[in-house]
Amino acid sequence: MKLRNAIATLAIPLALALTLAACGKSGSPDAMDDMDHSTMDHSGMDMTSPASGDTGMTTGTIRSVGENGDFLTIAHERIEGVGMDAMTMGFDIMSSVDLSDYESGDRVAFAVKKGRDGSYRITAICETTGTDMSCLN
């Protein structure tokens, strides 16, 4: 009986911690609440590809800018280097990236890096036309 109580005592906080971690949000809470989550389909993630890494670059069109300038929703092309297919999704922004000149509808090239928490953050961004990413160099 003591063993069962000890296991239950340990299992409940562990289950709670795992549940909270699974429900965690990244980015601005307001931006996440206002987002159309139906566009964040990550089924195109190729997690088995040997090309899947921690960094990549692509182009896309900004769909929305977070109220605090720390979050972007972008309809993007395939991100080579991380094995992510084209989709619309939200990205947190590294603190060194200034979004003050960007707005919904802007065509951009951007670089991402996978964080320890598994989410991708924009590390560099620039306006572009078409699929040209040379402005990132």
From TrEMBL:
N-terminal signal peptide: 1-21
Superkingdom field: Bacteria
InterPro entries linked to this entry: CusF_Ec, CusF_sf
PROSITE patterns tied to this protein: PROKAR_LIPOPROTEIN (PS51257)
Keywords: Signal
Protein name: Copper-binding protein
Phylogenetic classification of the source organism: Bacteria, Pseudomonadati, Pseudomonadota, Alphaproteobacteria, Maricaulales
